[in-house]
């Protein structure tokens, strides 16, 4: 079972938590470095696996394996150097590439004492080869690209702005060298995030020495140069196959786009107390839900459609009828008590023909799903009017309407927001739709800006509208009152037409099932939205593991995905 939610704490909170331990003389760096060395050795052994006489793959020997440490000026480099010393003492061939005039003295001394080597990377281009204790950036990049593993200890939580100096030129040269190197597949760009500690798959090689072609890249605490607290990629970054982070996950490891370059993760407990002493009540900066965190009401003998949650769907038009079916199907498959479809009669007939559980009669609902399949401008005034009225009712602004209820506002309905909303209204834009929503509120921003800084702009949209914002993408960011979630559960195959319609219907059913609670505690809508993104990803994985999927297949896979989550309880 996937463990419980991952809490990511800001660099400042992590430092505050380290302080008392450092003051007490706790050897945090040696703890961190030892754990890092153990993981590097284990990953290497698995990548050098050899088939035994019985054909079983067994971890290969790591003796003599070549380790390249990329060392920066701070304690991040110190972690790498001390880890290199542990590895050198176990017979690995360790070379440190020092990308700063001064590096962590204790770590360097430990490495050299253990038999490791160190060369200074001289960024100033020299006519001939650099001195014997120094090497040029191109030479260092070529040497490191030929290693079995690269340990990226250039920058950690002390990074300020885009990586600069020798480290930056070295990373750029290395990223170029590695981009050309064929991979044996075990670096297959996995993004498991910091919860997954499992090592890379074992790859059979003719012999232990025939290691994989491209080095395994292990980031120390974080891939150097990412935005530690906001997940941006402000400058050069060396994508990692594994990130070993200390004390707690950092927001940048969970947030896009940086979460896509962290590889598989490992959070090493070094005894930090979080929230930090002296900051009681401090919340984690970003949270990522795991399977066990998904709250899914299981009906009992006294339940009926209204206690399970009736979902009203205003989606699709005569031009885009498919969105109506996808949204309604997802809500039905997610176990809604009932789904009321509101829209053009011929679209309603097509929906009911495909999903006889859906009704087209009006009546009470516990959540609305508005806008999927509606164009941002023009198009069907009838649908726009229905969506506007439902949004007003959901928000409690329609006199005489039933009690306010949660609503999902998607696609063409996003342009109907002309008031601030309660947080039980959840917006589900993609980057382009979020940019349009912000431009309508005076921000000079486009899709590329939103994709470069998803947290910043999703937070801005939450502040501007009051609604909970689920910004969809390769990884989804959810911003609600005082809380941020970042989910990266979706396989790349989910980037397909109609997937957003399915998410909207799924989320609507999940909100309807807990409507009274969510209207009373609007901050919980964000957790439901994050859970919907997780279930959406799990359903996509089930729809066709490892291959192309259709949105309708994702909707049809929701029941199985939910059953699998509940079976883990
Ligand atoms: N404190 C401990 O014992 C433990 C720390 N851990 C590890 O340490 C790092 C944090 O170490 P710190 O020294 O605070 O910071 P960094 O190593 O990340 O980097 C600081 C140096 O990097 C320079 N710097 C800052 N920004 C940039 C940039 N954009 N480009 C290039 N260089 C940069 C900075 O120079 P300044 O001029 O800004 O001072 C510093 O020289 C943490 O991440 C852990 O890996 C252990 O994990 C736990 C124990
Ligand atoms: K690093």
Automatic annotation (TrEMBL):
Binds 1 potassium ion per subunit. This is Bifunctional NAD(P)H-hydrate repair enzyme. SUPFAM superfamilies: Ribokinase-like (SSF53613), YjeF N-terminal domain-like (SSF64153). GO terms for biological process: metabolite repair; nicotinamide nucleotide metabolic process. It comes from Xylanimonas ulmi. In the N-terminal section; belongs to the NnrE/AIBP family. Belongs to the NnrE/AIBP family. The gene is nnrD. Residues 288-565 form the YjeF C-terminal domain. Residues 181-212 are annotated as: Disordered. K(+) binds at residues 76, 152, 224. AMP binds at residues 472-476, 500. It catalyses: (6R)-NADPHX = (6S)-NADPHX; (6S)-NADHX + ADP = AMP + phosphate + NADH + H(+); (6S)-NADPHX + ADP = AMP + phosphate + NADPH + H(+); (6R)-NADHX = (6S)-NADHX. It comes from the Bacteria. The keyword Nucleotide-binding applies.
């Amino acid at each position: 079972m996937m463990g419980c939610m991952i809490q990511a704490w800001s660099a400042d909170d992590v430092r505050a938590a380290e302080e008392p331990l450092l003051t007490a003389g706790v050897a945090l760096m040696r703890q961190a470095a030892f754990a890092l060395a153990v993981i590097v050795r284990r990953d290497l052994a698995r990548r050098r696996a050899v088939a035994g006489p019985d054909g079983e793959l067994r971890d290969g020997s790591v003796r003599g394996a070549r380790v390249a440490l990329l060392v920066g000026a701070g304690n991040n480099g110190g972690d790498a150097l001390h880890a290199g010393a542990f590895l050198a003492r176990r017979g690995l061939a360790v070379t440190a590439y020092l990308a700063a005039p001064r590096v962590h003295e204790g770590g360097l001394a430990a490495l050299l004492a253990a038999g490791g080597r160190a060369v200074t990377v001289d960024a100033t281009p020299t006519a001939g080869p650099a001195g014997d204790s120094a090497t040029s950036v191109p030479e260092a990049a070529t040497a490191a690209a030929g290693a079995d593993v690269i340990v990226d200890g250039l920058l950690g939580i002390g990074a300020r702005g885009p990586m600069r100096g020798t480290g930056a030129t070295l990373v750029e040269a290395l990223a170029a060298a590695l981009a050309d190197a064929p991979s044996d597949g075990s670096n297959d760009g996995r993004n498991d995030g910091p919860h997954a500690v499992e090592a890379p798959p074992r790859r059979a090689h003719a012999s232990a020495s025939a290691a994989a072609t491209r080095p395994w890249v292990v980031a120390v605490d974080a891939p150097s140069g990412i935005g530690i607290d906001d997940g941006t990629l402000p400058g050069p970054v060396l994508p990692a196959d594994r990130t070993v982070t200390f004390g707690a996950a950092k927001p940048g490891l969970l947030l896009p786009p940086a979460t896509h370059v962290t590889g598989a993760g490992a959070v090493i407990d070094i005894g930090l107390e979080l929230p930090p002493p002296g900051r009681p009540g401090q919340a984690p900066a970003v949270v990522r839900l795991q399977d066990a965190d998904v709250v899914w009401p299981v009906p009992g003998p006294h339940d009926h459609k209204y206690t399970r949650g009736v979902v009203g769907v205003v989606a699709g038009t005569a031009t885009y009828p498919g969105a109506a079916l996808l949204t309604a199907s997802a809500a039905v498959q997610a176990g809604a008590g009932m789904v009321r479809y509101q829209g053009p009669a011929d679209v309603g007939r097509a929906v009911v023909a495909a999903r006889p559980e859906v009704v087209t009669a009006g009546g009470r609902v516990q959540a609305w799903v508005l806008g999927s399949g509606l164009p941002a401008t023009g198009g069907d005034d009838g649908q726009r009017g229905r969506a506007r009225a439902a949004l007003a009712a959901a928000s409690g602004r329609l006199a005489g309407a039933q009690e306010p209820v949660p609503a999902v506002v998607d696609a063409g309905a996003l342009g109907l927001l002309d008031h601030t909303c309660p947080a039980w209204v959840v917006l589900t834009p993609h980057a382009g739709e979020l940019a349009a929503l912000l431009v309508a509120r005076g921000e000079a921003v486009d899709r590329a800006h939103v994709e470069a800084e998803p947290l910043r702009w999703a937070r801005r949209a939450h502040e501007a509208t009051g609604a909970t914002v689920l910004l969809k993408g390769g990884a989804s960011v959810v911003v609600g009152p005082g809380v941020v979630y970042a989910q990266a559960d979706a396989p790349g195959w989910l980037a397909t037409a109609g997937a957003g319609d399915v998410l909207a219907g799924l989320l609507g059913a999940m909100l309807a099932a807990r409507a009274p609670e969510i209207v009373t505690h609007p901050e919980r809508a964000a957790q439901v939205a994050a859970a919907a993104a997780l279930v959406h990803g799990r359903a996509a994985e089930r729809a066709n593991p490892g291959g192309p999927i259709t949105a309708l297949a994702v909707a049809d896979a929701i029941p199985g995905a939910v059953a699998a989550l509940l079976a883990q309880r």
